[in-house]
What we know:
- This protein is mainly alpha-helical.
- The protein is built from two helices and no strands.
Amino acid sequence: MAALAWLLIPLFAVVGAAIWGSWVQRSKTIGDVAELAGYARFRDAMERAHPTTPGSAPFRPVHEAAPAES
Length: 70
């Protein structure tokens, strides 16, 4: 009976390795396609200019004046 137990250990190791190997080799293209499409939408949104009227100036940040040191 002890010999059978020692033979089951490599058997479980082989089954576990086969399961792990099939999981590692799975197709990952579905997630990549969705991420690339999301990145393309993000890039298009960043390239679009904000709507402005012809006479308006582009956005410029307002810097507060530094307090006078005494």
